[in-house]
Amino acid sequence: MAQKMIIDTDTASDDAVALVLALTDARVDVLAITVVSGNVPLDMGVQNALYTLEQCGSSVPVHLGADRPLIREHVFAHNVHGADGMGDIGLPLTGRTPADGHAVDRIIELARQHPGEITLVTLGPLTNIALALRKAPDIAGLFHRVVMMAGTGDHTGNVTPTAEFNIYVDPDAADIVFTSGMPLEMVGWDVSRNDATITPADSARLAATGPLGEFCTSIQRQLVEFCRDVTHIDGFDLPDPVTVAVAIDPTIGTRSIDAYVRVETTGTQTLGMTVVDHLGVTRQPANTKVVLAADRERFVEMLLTACAG
Ligand SMILES: [Ca+2]
Questions:
Q1: Domain coordinates of the chain in residue numbers?
Q2: What is the pLDDT of residue 309?
Q3: What pLDDT does residue 149 have?
Q4: Residue 279 Cα distances to 45, 253, 258, 259, 293, angstroms
Q5: Average of per-residue pLDDT across 5-21
Q6: CA-to-CA distance for 118 and 148, rounded, in angstroms?
Q7: What is the 63 CA–ligand 1 centroid distance (Å)?
Q8: This prediction's pTM
Q9: From ligand 1's centre to the CA of 122, what distance in Å?
C-alpha cells in the first residue's frame, strides 16, 4: 500500500524538485500539499507549487497556510532561488487556484482521519506545524513519521554560521515542534551540502531525461550562482529533495543518531541554531532521529527515475 504523505512546503526551486520526486513515485500517496511563507511570500509559494503539480499531471490539493512567522518579521530567500523563487526563467507562475480550507486545518483533519498512517514531510519553516500543534495538541501522536528538512546536524548554517534557513525564519515555531513529542526525523542542511550535491554533469543527465528533468534543472539557475558564490558548491545542492528521498526510502539516510535537539530562540549570535546534543550531555531523552549522511548515488538515481517518468 502506498505511503500516505502530507508535504508542507515554502515552494521554491528545490521544493519543486522534492514535489516532483514525491508525486511521481508509486510508493507515495500525497494527500495534500500545504504551503507556508518562507523562501518566498505565501501566494508565490502557492503558485509555484500549483505550477509544479501541473508539470507532474497531478491534482493533489494545495492549501494556503501561514503567511508569516509566529512572532518575527518575514525573512525571504530570493537571493537563493530568484525573484519568483523558480530561478527567474520566465515561467508563467500566476493564475492557478488553490484548494479551499486552511493548511493548518487540513493537517489536523487528515492526521485524525488516518491515525498512525501519515508521513508528514516539512520542507519550509515550521509555522504551519506549530500552529496545528497549538490548535490540536493530540495530533502530535497521530503521525507515522515527521521528516523535516530543518537545521543542521553538524551546526554549520547557511544563513548565519550556525543557523539553517527554515529554522532561522521561525525558530519559535521550530522549538514548539522539537518539544512536541512528534516522531521527528531531521535531515539537516549538512546532509544536503555533503551528500545531495548535483554536479554540472549530473545536472546535464537530469535535463536530458525529458521535460521534467529540464524543468527541475533549469529552475536552479539562481541557486547555482548562490552555491558558487556563498556555499562554495560546484553545481547545486538539493536539501528538500534529499529529505523527500529519505521520507520515501529511509535507507537513503546512511548514518543517523537519536539525539535531544532544541532550537535557540534568544541567542545573540546563534538565533535559529538547532542545538543537537551529540554526546548526551543534557541527559534529556532523544526527541529526534538526526540523519547525518545520505547515499548520494542512490539519491541521484531516484531523481533520474522520477524525471524520466
Ligand atoms: Ca523549502
A1: 3-308
A2: 77
A3: 98
A4: 38, 21, 11, 8, 18
A5: 98
A6: 14
A7: 16
A8: 0.98
A9: 8
- Residue 177, pLDDT > 80, answer yes
User: Residue 5's beta-bridge partner residues?
Assistant: 30, 119
**Alpha carbon 84 to chain centroid, angstroms:** 18
Mode of pairing for the β-strands spanning 274-276 and 62-64: unpaired
Q: How many residues in total does the chain contain? A: 309
Distance in Å, CA 39 to ligand 1 centroid: 7
Distance (Å, whole) CA 93 – CA 168: 27
pLDDT at 268 over 80: yes
What are 80-135's pLDDT values in tens digits? 999 999 999 999 999 999 999 999 999 999 999 999 999 999 999 999 999 999 99
Q: Say which of 8, 10, 170, 237 is annotated catalytic.
A: 10
Task: Report the CATH fold assignment for 3-308.
Answer: Inosine-uridine Nucleoside N-ribohydrolase; Chain A (3.90.245)
Q: What share of the chain is helix, strand, coil (3-state, %, to 5)?
A: 40, 20, 40
Residue 1 is predicted with a pLDDT of 86
For strand 253-259 and strand 288-294, is the pairing parallel, antiparallel, or unpaired? antiparallel
Extract the C-alpha cell encoding 245. 528521498
Q: Exposed/middle/buried for 195, CB within 10 Å: 0-12, 13-18, 19+?
A: buried
Give the CA distances from residue 189 to residues 62, 197, 239, in Å, rounded to whole numbers and listed in that order: 26, 11, 6
- 10 labelled catalytic: yes
- Mean pLDDT across 214-241: 94
Rounded distance from Cα 283 to ligand 1 centre (Å): 32
d(CA 279, CA 270): 20
